[in-house]
């Protein structure tokens, strides 16, 4: 119990130090009430009222180091990163399709998202990002030209020379060199990590420090097998195993491969991707899913992947949680991968997080 004059003292301290004193879980009315790497969010219907929750991932390259192979780290991944609430129509036709995220790709990257799932289509003689079906983009399912998003990624990589970004393309582009042309126009080719350096037969990836030194900091995977030979764009499932997506990937206690992927325990693929989002994106349930069941699924998939922790963790509405959500799950993965702890912050020691492996 606080003394009678404690409240004014707290207010004074809060006034002096502002947001720096806010912790995850503190009540808030705007993000300005919260600390760095937090936002103010109401996880209704689980809780009434808004509180400060995490909005940024811990950086394992900084908290530990970047001297391990690329596949020894976990990367927070946004599903349909481009399908953003409130994105204005770029076709002149109002959009009638689902959204999956709530802030720009630039902000996603700034918040520590390091892998983006993008759906690429032939559209208007160009390549567009659309949330469509049947492999065809329409005016009412189009979000924006891929070039615009690629330029955001290029700007991030330029401004952050120690970071690596992975693109996982659900690819419907059939125009010859359609994607290659957009990658060239965006300026991203200078960061391209070549397929020839991607490991076969379950070998480790190059060290992150080497990838950074060589400035080969953009990994691109396509869902179209033939493009690995024709355009030098890696066929995703040559290098990665992946669980079911949508509702099939959300059954508690189950984690098995999607049809295109080898079984999760196939260790000839060095990267593991875990999807955790429903078939139809729903904002209201995302908070609870990220706060409660996500960690269980991460643990389940570890088991079915032949005791391998996921490298990519893909979610909708990635910032929604009651506290740590997808960020904490990523910290867990990095903790496990890097030092066997339940949180990356425990690896370096001294941060007050106890390693209870
Ligand atoms: C980098 O961090 C990992 C995980 O904490 C540790 O095992 C390794 O020894 C570190 N390497 C260097 C060169 O510091």
UniProtKB/TrEMBL annotation:
Signal among keywords: yes
UniProt keyword terms in alphabetical order: Signal
PROSITE patterns: PIPLC_X_DOMAIN
One Pfam entry name: PI-PLC_cat
One GO MF term attached to the UniProt entry: phosphoric diester hydrolase activity
SUPFAM superfamilies: PLC-like phosphodiesterases
A Gene Ontology BP annotation from the UniProt entry: lipid metabolic process
UniProt keyword annotation of Lyase present: no
Signal peptide: 1-22
Matching PANTHER family: F21F23.12 PROTEIN (PTHR13593:SF51), PTHR13593
Record's protein name: Phosphatidylinositol-specific phospholipase C X domain-containing protein
Species this chain originates from: Oryza brachyantha (malo sina)
Gene: LOC102721909
């Amino acid at each position: 119990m606080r003394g009678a004059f404690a409240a004014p003292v707290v207010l004074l301290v809060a006034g002096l130090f502002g947001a720096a004193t806010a912790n995850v879980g503190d009540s808030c009315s705007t993000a300005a009430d919260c600390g760095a790497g937090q936002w103010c969010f109401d996880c209704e219907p689980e809780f009434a009222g808004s509180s400060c929750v995490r909005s940024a991932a811990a950086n394992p390259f900084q908290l530990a180091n970047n001297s391990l192979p690329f596949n020894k780290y976990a990367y927070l991944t946004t599903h349909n990163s481009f399908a953003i609430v409130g994105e204005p129509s770029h076709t002149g036709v109002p959009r009638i399709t689902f959204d999956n995220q709530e802030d720009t790709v630039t902000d996603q990257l700034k918040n520590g998202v390091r892998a983006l799932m993008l759906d690429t289509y032939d559209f208007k003689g160009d390549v567009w990002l659309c949330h469509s079906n049947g492999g065809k983009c329409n005016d009412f399912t189009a979000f924006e030209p891929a070039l615009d998003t690629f330029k955001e990624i290029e700007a991030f990589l330029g401004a952050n020379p120690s970071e690596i970004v992975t693109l996982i393309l659900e690819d419907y582009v059939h125009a010859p060199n359609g994607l290659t042309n957009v990658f060239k126009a965006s300026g991203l080719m200078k960061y391209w990590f070549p397929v020839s350096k991607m490991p076969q037969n379950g070998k480790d990836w190059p060290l992150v420090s080497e990838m950074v030194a060589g400035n080969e900091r953009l990994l691109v995977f396509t869902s179209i097998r033939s493009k690995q030979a024709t355009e030098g764009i890696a066929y995703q499932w040559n290098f990665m195993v992946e669980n079911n997506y949508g509702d099939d990937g959300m059954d508690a206690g189950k984690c098995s491969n999607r049809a295109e992927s080898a079984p999760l325990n196939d260790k000839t693929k060095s990267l593991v991707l875990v999807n955790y989002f429903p078939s139809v994106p729903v904002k209201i349930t995302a908070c609870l899913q990220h706060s409660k069941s996500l960690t269980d699924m991460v643990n389940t998939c570890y088991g079915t992947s032949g005791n391998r922790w996921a490298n990519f963790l893909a979610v909708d509405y990635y910032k929604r949680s009651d506290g740590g959500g997808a960020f904490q799950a990523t910290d867990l993965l990095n903790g496990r991968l890097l030092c066997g702890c339940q949180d990356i912050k425990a690896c370096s020691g001294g941060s007050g997080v106890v390693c209870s492996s």
